[in-house]
Amino acid sequence: MFCNQCEQTAKGTACTALGVCGKKPDVAALQDLVIYACQGLSCVAHAAAQKGVTDKDTDLFLYKAVFSTLTNVNFDPERFVPLIAKAVELRVCLQAKLNPLGVPAPDCDAARFTPASDLDGLVAQGEAHPLTALDPDADIASLKQTVIYGVKGVAAYADHAALLGQYDAGVAAYIYEALASALRTDLDLGAWVDLAMRCGTANLKAMELLDAGNTGTYGHPVPTAVPIGHRKGKAILVSGHDLKDLETLLKATQGKGIDIYTHGEMLPTHGYPKLKAYPHFFGHYGTAWQNQIKEFGAFPGAILMTTNCIQKPQASYLPNIFTTGLVGWPGAVHVGNEDFSAVIKRALELPGFTDDEDRGTVNVGFGRNAVLGVAGAVIDAVKAGKIRHFFLVGGCDGAKPGRNYYTEFVEKAPKDTVILTLACGKFRFFDKQLGEIGGIPRLLDIGQCNDAYSAIQIALALAGAFNCGVNELPLSLILSWYEQKAVAILLTLLSLGIKNIRLGPSLPAFITPNVLDFLVNNFGIKPITTPDEDLKAILG
Ligand code: SF4
């Protein structure tokens, strides 16, 4: 195997024997084969789009198939088999529609690919089509990987949005073009830079759709104090990102004497009016995804994993953990069709919390609506010199000790600065009491990683109010990345021309020195150094 798609990749280069995430070589090969099968489908779909032939169901399948290969989503080999078969079936169906129009089948192996009949055969096919067989030119291979990993993030957000009824054919059209292009060897560096920037644009659209789905279904988040303790009673913990799964569980547990707690990226869901209205949606438990082994082991109820972020369940809580949607782990019970009765049954069997514990609260719900609702006060505070600078300290959390940088950065940020945050990187400092500036909290939680869309809207609105560009605002982006959704978000920020982003805790293994030079020269991207040095460089 060879996988370098996430930040924790082995030795900063690639996982080659076993994934640091727990991914085994067979799963790595099957994930590569899913992408290869989707590339064959993409060749046909891209040609079909030129003839005005599109198919929404094929697009929705594409999102799921590509998303399933994202880090920490599915570790169950069997679950990839139908995805590979379906990609080929849809490719054949689409080509059948093109034949009468005189459009020939694409002349590439991926568009002729036939899956093996058993799992071992599929693994062998995956090994024969590794994602790293991208290009003999190292810099073009680097950009191809950047685009494919970005596409995985786009597919994830597009899938979340589609679950809430939001869809745009243009997002799928871009993914088809990008995956089909990755099979070509005739595109130069300029063409790949263009594809990378358009990946950012497609991701902005996917995040906009998801924002419309979330806020349209559940209302705009409002500032909300969320308990981080617990109360006596049966309990279910929900992790991942999927608001619809959470709502389904909240409905299914009404009146059953079970409290619902969030974990990880689910924390911001407490700010949505139509979710917080459920009286048994109690509070938040634990911190970020990489702490789940310790935290899940101590949770006295059932656990539901939605979307990504699962780690190898320990024997102590394997009977308590359930996966849904695209998430999978061999041996963990998978519940589908929005039927969470097995999760509820397990929660009722387990003891639940036996006492009340008050550990205070953390504040969420500072999405674009809430922040821009007090834009006048924010602008006045900046003009009066009460707010000197804004820092967006956000992104993914992870296990590396270098991530303490983000905790220290927030602790050391001067008291006349405001910290905007999003995604699970916030768990490095989410419970710190940073105080207020003229009634404006110094720590504003914008939401999940996809709420980068909300952060962008806040930045654009402030730039409009100050009659300047985003790069001229007293705003610095201090980002942490881990998996491929972060790659997509970074490309979105670059596609919007946002400069001088500080990125850590380490740079992606798939970026070559020449591509890094390009990013530094054109976008001023900087690796993080130390909190003291970076604060000094930004604030002078
Ligand atoms: S997803 Fe990350 S940790 Fe897992 S195998 Fe790939 S690079 Fe390694």
Tell me about this structure.
The strands form 4 sheets. Strands 4-3-2-5-6-7 form a 6-stranded parallel sheet, with helices on one face. A 6-stranded parallel sheet has the order 13-10-9-14-15-16. Strands 1-8 form a two-stranded antiparallel ribbon. The chain folds into 3 domains: 10-208, Substrate Binding Domain Of Dnak, Chain:A, Domain 2 (Up-down Bundle); 225-349, 3-Layer(aba) Sandwich (Rossmann fold), CATH 3.40.50; 365-539, 3-Layer(aba) Sandwich (Rossmann fold), CATH 3.40.50.2030. The chain is of the alpha/beta class. Strand 9 (389-395), helix 14 (404-412) and strand 10 form a beta-alpha-beta unit. It is built from 18 helices and 16 strands. The protein has helices at 25-50, 56-67, 80-98, 119-128, 138-163, 169-181, 189-218, 243-252, 273-276, 292-298, 341-349, 368-373, 375-383, 404-412, 452-465, 484-495, 513-523, 531-539; strands at 224-227, 234-239, 258-262, 281-284, 302-305, 321-323, 333-334, 361-364, 389-395, 417-422, 436-437, 440-441, 443-447, 475-480, 502-504, 526-527. The structure holds iron/sulfur cluster (SF4). Iron/sulfur cluster binds at residues 3-6, 8-9, 15, 19-21, 23, 71.
List keywords for this structure.
Rossmann fold, 12% strand, alpha/beta, binds iron/sulfur cluster, Substrate Binding Domain Of Dnak, Chain:A, Domain 2
